[in-house]
UniProtKB/TrEMBL annotation:
Homodimer. Residues 43-182, 215-356 form the SIS domain. One of its GO terms (biological process) is protein N-linked glycosylation. Its main location: cytoplasm. Keywords: Aminotransferase, Cytoplasm, Glutamine amidotransferase, Repeat, Transferase. This is Glutamine--fructose-6-phosphate aminotransferase [isomerizing]. Catalyzes the first step in hexosamine metabolism, converting fructose-6P into glucosamine-6P using glutamine as a nitrogen source. Its EC number is 2.6.1.16. It comes from Galbibacter marinus. The lineage of its organism: Bacteria, Pseudomonadati, Bacteroidota, Flavobacteriia, Flavobacteriales. It is an enzyme of class 2 (transferase). GO terms for cellular component: cytosol. It is found in: Cytoplasm. The chain holds residues 250 to 615 of 615 of the full protein.
Amino acid sequence: EKNGYDHFMLKEIHEQPDAIKDTYRGRLLLNDGIIKMAGIEDNIERLTSAQRIIIVACGTSWHAGLVAEYIFEDLIRIPVEVEYASEFRYRNPVITPNDVVIAISQSGETADTLAAIKLAKEKGAFVFGVCNVVGSSIARETHAGAYTHAGPEIGVASTKAFTTQITVLSLIALKLAQFKGMLSASQLREYIAEMEAIPAKVEECLKVDAHVKYISSMYKDSPNFLYLGRGYNFPVALEGALKLKEISYIHAEGYPAAEMKHGPIALIDEHMPVVVIATKRGHYEKVLSNIQEIKSRKAKIIAVVTKGDTEVREMADHVIEVPETLEGLTPLITTIPLQLLSYHIAVMRECNVDQPRNLAKSVTVE
Ligand code: F6R
């Protein structure tokens, strides 16, 4: 059932082009410039009149929520807050009937996320679920929702669930933007066309595998890693670090690149590998100067760059090239090499990739 792959995680990484396609199939109509999503259409007034969107989730799903914050605020101009479900539910949060809560969960069974939903409903908010497992508790407990259609995810470390969550959240934002008249027909068409180009681009990203494997062999014994990104790639940095921690047991931290100088830069010396996401669209010049700062402290730089980049190449120890896309869809692309990096490092360290110690696929206890 691993389909010839050594691990479920690797299989699921490679399934992403199809999983993303399955997620938007039937929902994107390029020729008409239309997005069809019943759960959104049936509640369109309620959703577009929200004064605030609160996203609740845990772990990797929380990272998808952070990406959604950027997309939603960019496209529909509704303020978004992203909350760890466990903090939200115990904080006596301010929730009103004018709020829309979006709960994101692969399994649909995460106890804290489920409890956060119940609390939000009690306070009168409208709750929308983004789940992968059909008929799961969270899918049933929410007022409406949209499934990710990623297919079963067996590896404990979440991969295709993450990229399909981002896909579905992008569609939701586009649908709402379309309804609110916030995108011109041509902008919408461009977005849809680019979304349809994503599976092939993810496929292209997967081709960096041998190169990433080589990089992995050089740094597999490092006790620490830093991951840096800005804007849409900041959550990707967090997710890259989480993936490495959970399956290879290497300590890793993700930071917004500009936060470096407020503390973490003190950690940097010639032994520290720093993974920097430095793609062309989105604060490229700023990231370049962040790379310079790290370089002058002799860190080892592993940079994820847009195909054909020359400037980063001059400074970085290793570059991993990925295809260009719209800034808002970048996380779907830049995440892929980071998944592969953590996978190869974990395998080289002889870790149990699919079932890392101390972790369970769904966390049904608080
Ligand atoms: C990370 C991972 C966990 C889950 C988290 C939430 O790879 O798998 O961090 O993302 O436990 O799980 P769901 O999405 O099922 O609510």
